[in-house]
Amino acid sequence: MHTMVTVLLALAMLGTLGVLFAGMLGLARGHDGARSNKLMRWRVWLQGIALALFVILLLMNRG
Question: Where does the sequence pass through the membrane (predicted)?
């Protein structure tokens, strides 16, 4: 279980990083605001998931 949560955390963190870079590149190239807004929502969701998985991992290591 510990390994699965660790892998999911890593995937969520990589996904957050990927969406962040995609949004930054889109802004630099002057893409439309709707796409940028959608990427921002995805980033927030992925960050929340990563944070929740991190807390779960900390609680698993605690006890």
Answer: 40-60
Instruction: Provide the CB-side half-sphere exposure for 60 (13 A, CA).
Output: 12
The encoded tokens of residue 5 equal 């949560």
- Please give the tally of structural domains in the chain: 2
pTM for the structure as a whole: 0.85
> Is there a single domain that holds both residue 25 and residue 36?
no
Convert the pLDDT of each residue in 11-26 to its tens digit: 999 999 999 999 889 8
Are both 37 and 19 inside the same structural domain? no
